Amino acid sequence: MTRLRLPPWLVLLLPAIIILAAVVLVPLVLSFYSSFTAYQLTRPETLWKWIGTFNYRKAAGDANFWWAFGRTVLLLTIALNLEMLLGLGLAVMVSKVTTGQRLLRTAMMFPMMFSPVLVGFQFKFIFNDNVGLVNNALQSLGLTDVAIPWLVDGHLALFSIIFAEIWTSTSVFAILILAGLYAIPQDPVEAAKVDGCTPWQSFRFVTLPFLMPFIYIAMAIRSLDVARAYDIVQIMTNGGPARRTELLWTLIGRTAYVDARMGYANAMGYIAILLSIFFTIYFFRKLTAARSELGMGV
Amino acid sequence: MKRLAGVSVAALMLGLSGTAFAEGEFAGVTLEAKLIGGQQYEALYARIPEWEKMTGATVKIISQKNHFELDKEFKSDLAASTTNWCVGSNHSSFASQYPSLYTDLTPLIPADQVAEYVPANIAAATLDGKLVMLPRAQFDVSALYYQKSLYTDPAKAEAFKAKFGYDLAVPETWDQLRDQAEFFASPPNFYGTQYAGKDEAIVGRFYELVVANGGKLFNDDFSPAFNSDAGKQSLQWFVDLYKAGAVPPGTTNYLWDDLGNGFASGTIGLNLDWPGWAGFFNDPAASKVAGNVGVAPAPKGSAGVRTGWSGFHGFSVTENCANKEAAAALVLFLTNEESQILESSAGPLPSRTKVWEHVVDAAKSDPYKTEVLAAFQETGKTAFAVPATPYWIEATNLIYPELQAAILGDKSVDEALQAASDAVDGLMRENGVY
What we know:
The structure holds 2 protein chains of 2 kinds.
Chain A: H1 8-34, H2 54-60, H3 63-96, H4 101-108, H5 110-113, H6 116-126, H7 133-140, H8 154-183, H9 186-194, H10 199-227, H11 231-236, H12 248-258, H13 262-293
Helix pairs in contact in A: 2-13, 3-8, 3-10, 6-8, 8-10, 9-10, 10-13, 12-13
Chain B: H1 2-17, E1 30-36, H2 39-45, H3 48-55, E2 58-65, H4 67-80, E3 87-91, H5 111-114, H6 119-124, E4 126-127, E5 130-131, E6 134-141, E7 143-147, H7 154-164, H8 174-184, H9 199-212, H10 229-243, H11 256-264, E8 270-273, H12 278-281, E9 293-296, E10 310-317, H13 324-334, H14 337-344, H15 353-362, H16 367-381, H17 392-407, H18 413-430
């Protein structure tokens, strides 16, 4: 009787394979399978009730789902661009500071240190129409005599959420771009100066191309973050009122854990993942193009 | 069988005296419990060591959260088949969602013991013929809190009569309340009234108004029945108040805490709210309206019926509990006369007939407490629980965005109710309800 001998490379890789299978592969396969069933959390036996592509067809035909999808793309586009512009400005300004730069860099990271749930509560209070800080300040200053419904009006509610997102995450861009600014070789910048470029020209045509790979990395990270935005929105508006701020993950979260319809929620989740995959591929392509433009290889 | 009989005797003794118990009846038994957490619920749990000492059993509280969090945990437990803990907090609004989680208490609790609870509460705790929980002294129905000073100003009374043609008095109907709320409102500093504007909360309010206006939320087969004249009249009430600026513009985002704090801030005239707020509203340290609070029974709808959406907390025993007899005895202990007197002394309403009498008697020397109890007792007489369908919460998640859409003007009342009705109909059909 011969003992089964696994090749050494497989033995060495086995712990990693087992862990990955347990924490990634099994949940992934199980959730994918359940998206084809009528699985409800409160009725475990429904996990075995195969209903084919019903959940996917239901999601595809549900206007509320596609509105949430579109709203998530809108939020992502606005938040990402504004965060990038503000982060770039912040990083450029901080890089020019000669004394106290370390202190500024640390202070800049403060918003990132707060839990998103707390940020949600904080902005929910700030934007409350009756007792909130913003309305009270505006009314005390005589700028308005009405209670502005920040978290109710369709545009204002989305603005309030974007404001909270930007407040908490602009520093992600600022820190990454600042790292990029430190990494820029000084020769081309000095050469541009000698050639008579204006400060704007040397920023636009020398500094910015060097920064683009850093910007695209920040974009890729944040696009994944925003595409799965849940906590801040859940606390501030819970997707309401009248679905005006409903995003993909508030809808999916409610369907899965409040309505207990895990099969349907998983189907929506798999469609939603396409969004993240699209943005990740898009930004990595941009990153590769920016790197090859700089002669950094691919 | 012998064990069951033993438990019944022990339970009977416990119920009669409140503390007596067969010494060491459950020696060595350990019961795991998942209970609702929060300061107002803790005083009762302090009695658990007393029960442990009497019976020899040990109670291990393995989870303490609010009901919304417990609800998610119970659903996860069902999914993972980890339901061998024994005692769980339950609520009449959630109970119907877990048809397989909890056992029928009827064979475990003597009938004469069950008869000592308020019959309407026991009826609402009985689902598909199964008594799934025993109610604790946390019965909830809403009555009308109001600022008394609004009704003592002769100039206001005169102006009101000139405008509406009838005397200004605490409203007895929801139409009168709408008139008065619009009359008192002076935004952004003062609003006539307010309402919970999202989740199950607004659907509950809508539901009770539909009933008060002579309609039904669901037919007997649980098909939606709210797209009716009574439904339209009810939703129109919410829309009118919002359009008139008689409620805060953010009300569609408000839940119970926002409402309670809003009334206590003195910026709201009339407020339909739960009994748990009575003490807070009249506490000078917490509320600007302390000393100026009146409480009246919930107003009536156009059908002459009072609104009375009610709920209550209770305790249940799981189907997979290894020692259901001990668990049932603990549940009985936590809801017995002594336990309910203890809980209701802090303000919440009891669910045992005798304890109601005790509470009313004890409040005689305090006019405010007496007024509060009279208002809630009157409203409680015609109170009704949520429809007993496992799809209640899911249906509310389909209905409330449509109610909000009508309130905010995104849809007409007719369009909103049609959309909500279609969505609920789809839900019921998909689940094979009919």
